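User: Show me a protein chain along with its predicted structure.
Assistant: Here is one chain, sequence first, then structure tokens.
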Amino acid sequence: MQPKILPALFFFLLGLSTAVAAQRRVAQFEAFTDTEELFLDSYLELNLVLRNGEGTDFSPPDLKDFRILSGPSRGVSTTVINGQVDMEMRFSYTLQPRRLGKLQIGAASIKVNNRTLRTRPISISVIQGNKQKKGAGAGEEYFVRAELNKSQAYVGEQVRLDYKLYTRVEIQNYNMIEESGYLDFYAEDFQRIDGQVRKETLSGREYYTRILKSLALYPQKAGVLRIEPASLQLGILVGDPSESFFFGGDVRRAAVLTEAVELRVAPVPGNPPVSFSGAVGDFSMSALLNRNTATTDDMLTLQMTVVGDGDLKRIEAPVLIRWGFV
């Protein structure tokens, strides 16, 4: 019986030693990018990969020099080959640089069995690329422009800002990643916009256009005020849609950046009337009393409605001393 036991015992010990070796594999946490040099208006992929461990308490890297176009998206995979178990946890980002020069992607950290693992920081060189020229878009198949409905305005006057897509390819979707801070403006979104697709010719090329977002801006001071570029991500249909499994085609993500625009703002003309509160624009006002007759001890309700395209928060209620109500 002894010769029959030894092979079984041998295989048991071999399997046990393999399992122990798999358990002793050291967990690793590493960071990778698909490039270490890119243009200012381009983007990169960042992957943070944990191998041979189950991580908790993930702490993302310092990305202050980049716009986060997407992420972090998380994926977990496990493979077994010849009894060897490989585990992988991945965190992915799509990033766009904010400025030229040497930028730093900071270290990320994660805990594995009460031990903290950290990735190494990554240096990225950002160089000047071919930027879109304002109002041109020559040679571009798609781009987004920030367009003002006027180039000059008074302090407090309403100015409309449209983010407008120009494209010669099919755009499936878009995402506004980061807008200007609208420094020196009071900004409000238009809830209803004309999102109709139109055809326009620009620099001798025909584009399909659509307004993606509109805002009402009210300049708060005089001077040349700057609206910083906005960052967007477009989903571009590539390939033949009829060859796709769901007949939707493949979608490629593309990062775009608008040009900065400027507005010349003049102060309100001198010697305004005493009742002027700072509202500039086209307004109409209507008044309604709840009754037309009253005695001296009756209470009346006066409703005054102001409608216009200016900064309504600057409008103050009129003084009613002349009518004897105050």
